[in-house]
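Before relying on records like the one below, remember that each one covers exactly one chain. Contacts with other chains, cofactors or solvent are not represented anywhere in the record.
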Amino acid sequence: MVYDTTTVFDSLPYYDNDLELYPFLKEKVDKELAREPKPPQTMHPLVPPPFELFKSNSLLAAELARVEAHHLLPPLDTVRYQLPAPTSSPGTDEGWREAIRNAHAQLEHQRLRHTNLALLQTYGQNAWRINNYLLEETAKQSEGALEELKQLTTELNRERKNSQTRYGAQLTTLETRWTELLSSILQIEMANVALEGEVERLRTKEGEMASLS
């Protein structure tokens, strides 16, 4: 279906009250609406498409889906933090070498974590504050735009109501004047019909009198 984006549908909701005054009109309107095809389920072309968060980051997208589904966080994998001894008894040289390599890997991992925590403690607070400041500014701008849009909507509705009320009074006056003129025309036509009847009666009477003489 192709939409005509230049078409503006408007009405006079602040003036028109025929449906309330004449219930039979509302019944006719409801019947006509019931015969109308259902509106399309697709959005209007002017409505922007839905914004997909974290489109380029699959990890964040999966985390967002988990939060939306109200699923719990998976439990922490503590196996990699363990230092298992050789499984064979007694332990072989290769088993102990594997255990030592695992211990060295765990130690290096903990050292990197300690370094990252130290960097986060030193520089993370400022980065967090800057990010919060940017988020607050974005939220303020969005709230300001929303408030401005609400104000414009309120002003537009107020202007429409005032104009419709003003023009509605003029329409009522013109409709009343039209009804009065129509009534006057009908009265004049009825008077003309009566006069034509009277003229015809007088002509008939004149003809009768002429025939008698």
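DSSP finds four helices and no strands in the chain.
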